[in-house]
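Quick one, T. Sequence first:
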Amino acid sequence: MSDDKLTKILTFIHQRNPEVGELKLDDDLIDRRAVDSLAFVEFLYLLEELSGETIDPEEIDVEDFRTLRAIDKRFLHGAAAH
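Structure tokens:
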């Protein structure tokens, strides 16, 4: 994951949920409630912007959002292949 994209994702999370604290690549974002349901659509838009690809909500799985590493793998490196 590029540092720039990681920074944008972390900035988004911390602006909406400052209490989440430090997040590492393998921290469970769902258990930590890093992105709430109200901000999730905005989060998808951010991922689309960073990946340059449209994300079809019908084709995503909760595991795609479990960690920063999973987000990177699914959406930022070859998302179109999925």
